[in-house]
Design brief:
The protein is of the alpha+beta class. The protein contains ten helices and 39 strands.
Length: about 700
């Protein structure tokens, strides 16, 4: 066993040598025949027990298929850097650095010009605001003005210092800051999972000539501000405002909270709503000619992930129209509607006529080009690989390419004209594929599993096979439940395969990317439809004879953990062992402790209201849909891994199931990770969880 553990450790160590691309931008200094690419990467460092971030730049020459990489800079580690933004002309660069001195965080905004640092501003010295928000993919923004005279960013609001009623007043009041007595223990609302330090936000403008910071104040206090950018000609600002009433629910992975896009005009101080009221909005993207903008919107409430609309606002006329609507029931080769969290930060073609974005299309991530003149949409990547758009500039694109047996790598391509093929140039060559193979399987539910409202809908599963003959099978349902597994590279899946397991990633009905009917078929049927879909896919693979049917295990996190614990309870003789991360195990006590109480109601098929207090009838229904209802039938040993800072599925959910198994003499192991929230992703925890999971499977097979 010791030799086997050493192999598992080595497998994961080798896989972590492939860095993950964090950011990639085509420099504004690029020309027709010269392309400058600035990139940032992240990689696990096991000795330092942390993720290190580093930059690497490229110079490419030529066009289209004749493009070649002329120069690749050495890697340079980045530390303390929150933002790094090139100005529109490319002649300036702004960097935000967070530095901790004497246990106090300080934020410096640096301006680099040519060969030197021309300015360094201590952002907190003026006492205008609190910490500057990082690039959190939710609120943070840091944007050059078109004139390059100012910078726009989001920060925490500066509040009076909270002190005790019993703290003595300072005799020297000359430097005393504003204080608030007796408020140091008052509850501060935040936005839940991974956004716990975001309480009150403000939009700030730094004038680079005077170095004065202005905090915009003509904005209602019941809005939480984020994703700000400049209005055309620097005449004002555009931003997303989230409604904080009656209370805030978790926002990350949940783009269905009430929010609008606003325009604050500097000359008139008038605040105007740009988006349609009664929707959830995000991702403001102004066209290069500043004549229009696009953004994404969704229904308020319902499934936390769902298809989005692409909206177009004409700056001159004020007209708002739908560029791309949701799709109810697409066929397998039809566009399923836009399925994505955000548009690329830059997504417009140079002529301001086309939008380029990646989106989920069944089990793939594809690149789409949408023409705003006639609302036409074209898919420009094909096959069972995944392609994520990282940047679009000067009609060139940077794509993150991968597949289950090929790690992420970057490629540059020119935006093809109508009818032309896409030619991608890998900037570091194409990484060597692993020894595994994969395919996408289509599953058709049996007649007894046909949905009463939406009829018979198919779903898919991605099967990854190692080199071994008839290997054991890991059944891997995804979380959400309204997310999905794509044909992108996943380190855990590649690691399982390298350790000799086949892996079946099941996109059961209710997954994103198969149309709205498919997605909305699951609420009210969790613990039943999703469980049966996953099990049917597993049985189909076993019956094909390609895997060892006596060695089937199950692994999943969050809702995937919900399905893991359901599967070992509902099919106790089929699954030999299980492992799960932060599982939902009991809906009845989940609703009172999670940051997303609406999720519990919606997925249980019940209407959500902020005032709801579940009664006995509701709790009875929730219990019947919970894995804990089947715990008496469980035979399989189970490992449960918990992030102790998880606000989405609090650790007590996993602990309760662990105790239920222990009291029934079922082998169970509980592992907890400090400093980890819902995704267990710190270097130490992620690697430990992988090794313990494979070892757990080995032990019980």
């Amino acid at each position: 066993m010791g030799h086997r553990v050493n192999k598992i450790v080595d497998v994961y160590r080798q896989l972590c040598r492939f860095p993950d691309p964090v950011n990639a931008c085509i420099s504004n200094l690029s020309s027709t025949n010269k392309t400058i690419l600035n990139t940032q990467w992240s990689q696990h460092d096991f000795e330092r027990k942390e993720k290190v971030k580093f930059s690497r730049d490229y110079l490419l020459s030529g066009q289209s298929e004749h493009m070649t990489v002329d120069f690749r800079s050495p890697n340079k580690e980045i530390s303390n850097e929150l933002w790094n933004k090139e100005s529109p002309s490319g002649s300036l660069r702004a960097v935000v650095k967070k530095v901790t001195k004497k246990e106090e965080d300080k934020y410096f905004i640096e301006i680099w010009k040519g060969t030197h640092k021309s300015q360094c501003i201590d952002a907190l010295a003026q006492s205008k605001h609190g910490k500057i928000y990082e690039n959190d993919d939710q609120f943070g923004s840091f944007v050059w003005s078109y004139s390059e005279k100012s910078l726009l960013y989001i920060a925490e609001k500066k509040l009076p210092k909270s002190i005790s009623y019993f703290e003595r007043e300072k005799k020297d009041k000359s430097k005393e800051e504003e204080i608030s007595r007796g408020t140091e223990h008052f509850y501060k609302e935040d936005w839940g999972e991974q956004l716990t330090s975001k309480h009150l936000s403000v939009i700030c403008i730094l004038d680079l000539e005077s170095e004065d910071i202005r905090v915009l104040s003509d904005i209602p206090e019941d809005l939480f501000l984020g994703q700000a950018c400049w209005a055309p000609s620097d005449s004002g600002v555009l931003f997303v405002g989230w409604d904080v009433n009656p209370y805030r629910a978790g926002l990350i992975y949940c783009p269905i909270r009430k929010s609008c896009i606003y325009h604050l005009d500097f000359n008139s101080s008038v605040l105007k709503m740009v988006s349609e009221e009664g929707r959830s909005c995000r991702s403001i993207r102004v066209s290069p000619d500043q004549s229009k903008l696009v953004y994404l919107d969704n229904d308020i409430g319902g499934p936390h992930m769902q298809g989005s609309r692409l909206m177009l606002y004409d700056w001159g006329s004020g007209d708002l129209c739908v560029m791309s609507d949701t799709v109810a029931a697409p066929s397998a080769d039809e566009f399923p509607g836009l399925c994505l969290l955000d548009l690329p930060k830059r997504c417009w073609s140079t002529d301001s006529c086309r939008i380029v974005t990646s989106s989920i299309w069944r089990s793939n991530v594809v690149v789409l080009v949408i023409d705003v003149r006639d609302k036409s949409m074209k898919r420009i990547t094909q096959g069972n690989k995944s392609y994520g758009v990282m940047d679009v500039n000067q009609d060139k694109m940077v794509l993150c390419c991968s597949s289950p047996n090929q790690p992420q790598h970057l490629a540059v391509a020119e935006l093809p004209s109508s009818g032309s093929d896409l030619t991608m140039i890998p900037v570091d060559g194409t990484p060597t594929s692993t020894d595994s193979t994969y395919e996408v399987l289509t599953m058709i539910p049996t007649d007894d599993r046909t949905h009463q409202q939406y009829g018979k809908m198919d779903y898919e599963a991605v099967l990854v096979m190692p080199t071994e003959v008839k290997p054991p099978l890991i059944v891997f349902p995804h979380g959400g439940p309204h997310t999905l597994f794509t044909t992108s590279f996943m380190r855990y899946v590649a690691g399982f395969s390298a350790c000799g397991f086949a892996v079946l990633m099941v996109n059961y009905r209710g997954s994103l990317g198969f149309g709205e009917n498919n997605l909305r078929s699951l609420p009210g049927f969790i613990g039943d439809q999703d469980v049966k879909d996953v099990h049917a896919a597993a049985e189909a693979v076993v019956q094909s004879g390609r895997v060892d049917g006596s060695k089937v295990v199950v692994f999943g996190g969050s809702h995937g953990g919900f399905l893991t614990t359901h599967l070992i309870g509902q099919y106790p003789d089929f699954y030999k062992v299980g492992s799960c991360r932060n599982p939902v195990t009991n809906l009845t006590n989940m609703i009172g402790v999670t940051d997303i109480p609406d999720w519990v109601m919606v997925e249980s098929g019940l209407p959500f209201d902020h005032k709801v207090v579940p009664d006995g009838e509701i709790l009875t229904k929730m219990f019947s849909m919970s894995p804990i209802a089947h715990v008496d039938k469980v035979k399989a040993p189970l490992q449960i891994m918990l992030g102790l800072d998880d606000r989405r599925v609090p650790p007590k959910q996993g602990e309760q199931f662990y105790r239920a198994l222990k009291s029934r003499n079922i082998p169970a192991r509980l592992i907890s990770y400090e400093g980890n929230s819902h995704p267990i992703i710190t270097t130490e925890a992620e690697s430990d969880a992988f090794v313990n999971t494979v070892s757990w499977f080995d032990t019980h097979l």
